[in-house]
Amino acid sequence: MILDDFMVRAALAGVGTALAAAPLGCFVVWRRMAYFGDATAHAAILGVALSLALSLPVFAGALVVALVMATVVTILTGRGYAMDTLLGVMAHSALAFGLVGVSFLTNVRIDIMAYLFGDILAVSRADLAVIWGGAAVVLALVAWRWSALLTATLNPDLARAAGIQPKREQLVLTLALAVVVAVAIKVVGVLLITAMLIIPAATARPFSRTPEAMAAIASGVAMLSAWGGLRASYMLDTPTGPTIVCVVAVLFCLSTLISGTRRRA
């Protein structure tokens, strides 16, 4: 069967992750939530440790801890702590506790580098089902709440006047972000997930006239980066997750140069 080829499975995993991360990344960029996404991703390592300790699926543990982290940060924001300070404390604390917890799992064989930087070449059929299932959930959430999310992002006061609750839309974004973090661990790892959220959206921004166009272009950039990074990694014998991020970073640089040239012209 076609899915017996590990490169085909890796390509499908990269495309699935790209489809989930890119549209959501546009809202992360518009809302300036980059550090929020980073904190949620770092917390996933604690979820990995708990999953392995309790013999649960890694996806389930990472999803639950990411959701808890995002929810706690949302609740505590504005209660005497600056957002960047709160995110910094919780992100690095969760990452540290997760790494320490993993070190105690002496009866479990674990490659911590695979969780930190991804191991897309080891994606199984079950992993593919989780990645594409998660991508479907995220795309369905974003499509369902697109108008409300966009209004709440651009003008919270206008959203309230239209009967939209900005806090509820924030919760939708939090849920979607947690799902993306959980499905992307296998592909790019917790330390590089935020890059796949932010860089494709930032690359698409100069060429987008509408929010919908930006989401579509960002998705194309992310999928191209996943495929190009996988191919470059295979040819150059480099780590695949970091190579995918390198490719999308190069595309961002090209985007910046082209948009700057167009402005001067």
Structure description:
The protein has helices at residues 6-30, 34-53, 58-76, 83-103, 112-117, 125-144, 146-154, 156-161, 166-188, 193-204, 211-236, 240-264. The chain is mainly α and 265 residues long. The chain has a single domain (2-192), classed as ABC transporter involved in vitamin B12 uptake, BtuC (Orthogonal Bundle), CATH 1.10.3470. α1 (6-30) packs antiparallel against α9, α2 (34-53) packs parallel to α4 (83-103) and α7 crosses α9 (166-188).
Summarize this structure as a short list of keywords or feature phrases.
globular, single chain, ABC transporter involved in vitamin B12 uptake, BtuC, 265 residues
> Domains counted in the coordinates: how many?
1
Q: Describe the largest sheet.
A: none
Our Rg estimate from Cα atoms comes to: 18 Å
Helix/strand class:
mainly alpha
How many DSSP-defined strands? 0
The CATH topology is given as ABC transporter involved in vitamin B12 uptake, BtuC
What is the approximate shape?
Answer: globular
Counted by DSSP, the helix tally is 12
Q: Overall pLDDT, averaged? A: 83
Secondary structure: elements and pairs:
Elements: H1 6-30, H2 34-53, H3 58-76, H4 83-103, H5 112-117, H6 125-144, H7 146-154, H8 156-161, H9 166-188, H10 193-204, H11 211-236, H12 240-264
Helix pairs in contact: 1-6, 1-9, 1-10, 1-11, 2-3, 2-4, 2-9, 2-10, 3-9, 6-9, 7-9, 10-11, 10-12, 11-12
Task: Describe the structure concisely for a colleague.
With 265 residues, the chain is mainly α. It has helices at 6-30, 34-53, 58-76, 83-103, 112-117, 125-144, 146-154, 156-161, 166-188, 193-204, 211-236, 240-264.
